[in-house]
Amino acid sequence: METAYKSNNRPGKFRKKTRIYWENSGRIDQLYLEGNVIPTPGKLRHRLGTLSSEERVINFGDIFFPQKECVTFKIKNSSAENVKIAVISKPSYIDFSFGDQNIAAGKLDSITVCFDTKKRVLFGNTNDLIRFNFEDQAGVTTGYLQVRANVKQDFSQLTPEQLQKAPQIVFQNKKADFGKIEIGQVGKVEFHFENRGKKPLRIHNVQLNNPRVKLVSFDSLLVSGKQGKIHLQTNPKKINTIRTEIDVISNDPQNSIIKLQVNGLVIFPPKKRSTVFLSKNISLEQGQELYNEYLENGRLFILDVRSDSEFAEGHLPKAKNIDVQKKKFKHIIDLLDRKKIYLVYCQKGIRSAKAAEIMRELDFEEVYNLEDGFYGWQKMELPIEK
């Protein structure tokens, strides 16, 4: 077995995972490929519009308020025409300066990017996209530069007396659960916290990394001894497992960033479902929900795409066996009723994902791939037949 890693325009350390499925045993192994790609010195390996650029992503890392930090990188006009560069859109806290906005053909120049924390209202991580226009005789081309930073409060100058009197944030719970939420319903959770310090507690920011979970409100300023709460909600449009982290950034010098966790499981409504929930990978819990809801009314078709011998050793009740690895699989599947709901599984979810893709191509309306397959179903001691 040979593996290769293409290092084009990707300097730095890397660690890639490869999954190997052994067909005879059904076992899955994982291999890891690691290394460090060293950049070619002086090479402008990126494109910024029509220009060659030393950078495409500027990462300032941690910046302490009220600092201003700048980065300068090289650009080059490798074309035979002059290019005029202009910034079209950017946040107010990011500034640019150019060696020359009109870059002559073949000329090497530079851009300086500055991040001013005084102009940014919120603490925490930011990931901004800066838009440029590049104009030459052929017309105008748009290019983008990504700018990242993490704005923090600097507590290094506080005296021992100030630290003793500082605010102290304490959460009653750091985990919350939406529970089971039907598609289209609104799920709500709250986190409760208290200021046990002597100085007022200020919540600078509450950052979420999952767009399906929304921040409704939070108490931003608490005097000593007072309690506050953070209110979150979700309104799922498709089946999914909700698992997200929330960063609460405050002026507590001992715990300036506290991580919270929210979980939940989106399930099918008890009656008619919309066909927008097409061809999804679903968990064992969601598969069981689908199985219990629709098997008895005849709408659910359970499709086992393993080999005949695997099927004979055990399978889901009322499942039909069509081996996805047989040449006639697509032809046989094409004869099935497209109006039914299909729960597709194999041993561990790999072959069934392939089968679900084929069924998508054949315009089946609702196809759900059981991610952990028969192995997971059996491990949870759910019903099987032989």
Keywords:
single chain, 386 residues, mainly beta, Immunoglobulin-like, 4 domains, five-stranded antiparallel beta sheet, five-stranded mixed beta sheet, 6 helices
Molecular structure report:
This protein has helices at residues 160-165, 284-294, 308-313, 329-333, 350-361, 373-379; strands at 12-21, 28-37, 46-48, 51-53, 57-65, 68-76, 83-89, 94-98, 102-103, 108-116, 124-136, 139-153, 169-171, 175-182, 187-195, 201-208, 213-218, 221-222, 227-234, 241-250, 257-267, 280-282, 300-304, 320-321, 341-345, 366-370. With 386 residues, the protein is mostly beta strands. The protein has four domains: 1-39, no CATH class; 46-153, Immunoglobulin-like; 161-267, Immunoglobulin-like (Sandwich), CATH 2.60.40; 280-379, Oxidized Rhodanese, domain 1 (3-Layer(aba) Sandwich), CATH 3.40.250.10. It has a five-stranded antiparallel β-sheet with strand order 3-4-6-10-8, with no helix packed on it. The chain has a five-stranded mixed β-sheet with strand order 5-12-11-7-9, with no helix packed on it. Mean pLDDT is 88; it is low at 271-277.
